[in-house]
C-alpha cells in the first residue's frame, strides 16, 4: 500500500497569538501622553498630584507644570483667575492648603482653636470693615479710622493688595494677661493675601500687625460679628446674603461660631449670652511702612 508523504512547503511552527495594536512598540497611542495626563491631573487634589509626581521623573516633569497647579488652586479655592501672581502656583497651593494660619507665626502661645472659612477676592484696593452686619445707608466719611469706628462701627481701609485673600476664624486666649487661670477668650476674623506667607517681609518678622482702631461697646450685645467687604461689590446680590444674618448665623441659643463667605466678602458671627458689652480691635499688616495692606484682623472680646 502506498504511503502519503507530508508536503515540505508546510512546516511545523510555534503558535503566535495576534497582538493588539496598542501594545506594539510602534503604536500610535502612548501611556506617556502629556496632554492626557495634564487633563487627568485636573481631577486630582494637591496630595494626589504630589504622589503622582513622585512615581517617576517623567511624571514629576508633567505634574510640576505651573498650569496644573494654577488650575488646582483656583478650583479648590473657588475663585477666578487674578491674572498676575508674584509666586509660583505650586507654592501658593501649599500655603493655602497645608494647614498654616497667621497664629502659627505670631502669638502661637495664645492660640486655642480655628477654622478655615474660605477664599474671596479684592478687585479694588478699598475695603469696608464692619462690626455690625447691617447694610450701611451711607459710607463712613470721618477723617480718621477711630472716628469712623466710634460713630458707626465701621471704617474704610485703603491700599488693600488686590487679588486672592484667605479667611480664617480664630479663638485665642485673653490678650491682656498671661495668667493660665484666665478664662478670657477673643474671637478674631483673620484675612490675609494668599502671598503673605511667601513674602520675605513677613517671614523675617519685619512686617508686624499694627492696631488701626479700638473701642468699647458698653451695652449688651446679641452677637460678636465682623465683616470685610470689597467696597465695589457692597450692593452686589451675593453680598446681600451676608447681611441676611438670620439665614446663616444660627438660632439665638446656638453658641457655635458661624461664618459666611462670598466672592467679594467674608463675615463671622457668634451668638452671645447676656453680657456687659464688647471690646473691638482692628489690626492690619502692611507690606512695609508705605506698602499695601496684606492682612486684616477684626477681634472681639467680652468686657
Question: What ranges have pLDDT less than 50 throughout 5 or more consecutive residues?
Answer: 1-6, 12-29
Strand content: 25-35%
How much is the average pLDDT? 85
* Structural class category: alpha+beta
Topology as a string of helices (H) and strands (E): HHHHHEEHEEEHEEHEEEE
Query: Helix share of residues?
Result: 10-25%
> How many β-strand runs?
11
* Main sheet makeup: 6 strands, antiparallel
State the shape.
elongated
Termini separation (Å)? Answer: 123 Å
How would you describe the overall organization of this protein?
The chain has 303 residues and is an alpha+beta fold. It contains eight helices and eleven strands. The chain has a six-stranded antiparallel β-sheet. Strand 10 and strand 11 form a beta hairpin. The protein is elongated, with a radius of gyration of 29 Å. It starts with 33 loop residues before the first helix and ends with a strand. The N terminus is likely disordered.
List the helices and strands and how they pair.
Blueprint lengths: L33 H8 L4 H8 L3 H7 L2 H12 L11 H9 L13 E12 L4 E4 L14 H8 L1 E4 L5 E11 L11 E9 L6 H4 L6 E8 L5 E8 L6 H7 L14 E5 L2 E7 L6 E9 L6 E10 L1
Antiparallel strand pairs: 1-4, 2-3, 2-7, 4-5, 5-11, 6-10, 7-9, 8-9, 10-11
